[in-house]
What we know:
This protein is elongated. An eight-stranded mixed sheet has the order 13-12-9-14-17-18-19-20, sandwiched between helices. The chain has two domains: 7-181, 3-Layer(aba) Sandwich (Rossmann fold), CATH 3.40.50.1950; 190-280 and 298-400, 3-Layer(aba) Sandwich (Rossmann fold). Helices cover 35% and strands 24% of the residues. The protein contains 15 helices and 20 strands. The chain is an alpha/beta fold. The site of cytidine-5'-triphosphate (CTP) has 13 residues, from helix 13 and strand 17.
Amino acid sequence: MKLSGRRVLLGVTGGIAAFKIPSLVRALKREGAEVRVVLTEGARAFVTPLTLETVSGARVFLPEDFLRPQGGFIPHTELARWAELVLVAPATASFLSALRMGDASSLLVACLLATEAPGLIFPAMNEKMWSHPATQENVQILRNWGYTVVSPDEGPLACGESGPGRLPSEEVILAYARRLLSPPDLSGLRVVVTCGPTREPVDLVRYLSNRSSGRMGLALAQAAFERGAEVVLIHGPLSVPIPPLFTRVPVETTAEMQEALLEHFPAADVLFMVAAVADYRPVNFRAEKIKRRERLVLELEPTPDLLAEVSRKRRPGQVIVGFAAEEAENLASEAARKLRQKGLDLLVANPIDRPGAGFEAETNEVLILDREGRRIELSRRPKEEIAEKILDQVVRLRETS
Ligand code: CTP
């Protein structure tokens, strides 16, 4: 639990999405965070102090507390010193304006001016208010000052309109909170992750592919994001949703993945080649729907080895991590062969013939080999945990290279 014991000051301002905040407080608490809430006058109309006090298990700070410090407790400076992260959700247009102007007449803005903790702000409002130049300029200035202002999600809005304006999901808010509170050991690094299967069309309606879900790649991409990296996700068709934390490059065929990789690899510091690239493709694509007959022979040719190709083009300092799915019996020997033949820094191999590992599973068990001959075996555990261990190895390899 990355937020365990971390002190989060949560500012709530007066937008309709404030009704979601008690649930966010519970999610933060489940992750072990300590949460104190500051409500603005506007927020009070949407969510009650009693609810927030009950879910946070701590006193909620209201506008009038700013004017009446009790027993020598000066709320804005005390809270500013206490906080390790100030999270504002939802943030209204007028809150963004007040912060941009340094207008400390509300307790929440005063806390933000008085704190050294990072500020994480989630605007949510009508989409025209969001795209208004006043709001956009305020957001730009706050970003220039170092605040993390996360653009709202697109979708139906409470006002009946549709567009960018929705508060992002709890999972996304938590991912950003973890990013700002974790040791930023991948900070400033560009990480490319490929994941999911590729599809090779046979005819207008059929394709060759495999059962990769994309879960392991997404777990790595999210863990890298939370440790400070900028992540480009090159992905085939996935069976799980992709959180809006990455630059997404959707592809379908191996040739499209190759093109995307050749575009994004040169600027990458680390490549995780998690994709289950289709190994064969039909020699001839049939631009029709093939009719059922007695017997059909498809002629297939191997796809190019994308990993070996980028590995040949690497520049010094780039770390390349490959993956392999093998029968348990051949796992170690095949992993060693692929590490060597593809010129990798790290190879992560998992068995395909054990329950709770490999394709479509939520857990995995892996053998990790590195270029220096190290060997790490990880028993069955959630893919998120495996992802953290793989990242630890990447950090170590970067330190020693
Ligand atoms: N890979 C790739 N291009 C391919 C096939 C695989 O880049 N055409 C990458 C995968 O993304 C993975 C690694 O190579 O990171 C190993 O994939 P795997 O399918 O196990 O390797 P193959 O080279 O296909 O070996 P084999 O078929 O002999 O098992």
